[in-house]
Amino acid sequence: MATGYLEDGVDLRANLERIRRGEIEEWLRESREKYKCPVCGEPLSVSAMRRKCYHCGADLSKFV
């Protein structure tokens, strides 16, 4: 599972390590910024990150 997410730029192991170290608030803040639609600002699902925003329909392929 971790390997599949790495292909989308998500390092589950590194995320879990940061959370384990107590960096939850920092990790959440960074994740909210990193995984939001550049057009409407709504959160993106991992599966949508290379396709389109489920909220506004923006084509995300040009932002990758």
Please tell me about this protein's structure.
- By secondary structure, this protein is mostly helical.
- The protein has one domain (2-63).
- Helix content is 41%, strand content 0%.
- The chain contains 3 helices and no strands.
- It has helices at residues 2-7, 12-20, 24-34.
- The longest helix is centred in the middle third of the chain and has 11 residues, at 24-34.
- It starts with a helix and ends in a 30-residue tail after the last helix.
- The model has no long low-confidence stretch (mean pLDDT 84).
Helix-strand blueprint:
Layout (H helix, E strand, L loop, with lengths): L1 H6 L4 H9 L3 H11 L30
How is this structure best summarized?
This protein is mostly helical and 64 residues long.
| Distance between the amino and carboxyl termini | 22 Å
Element order, helices and strands?
HHH
Low-confidence stretches: none
Largest sheet: none
Percent range of helical residues: 40-55%
Mean pLDDT: 84
Q: How many E-type strands? A: 0
What is the radius of gyration? 13 Å
* Strand percentage: under 5%
Relevant terms:
mainly alpha; about 0% strand; about 60 residues
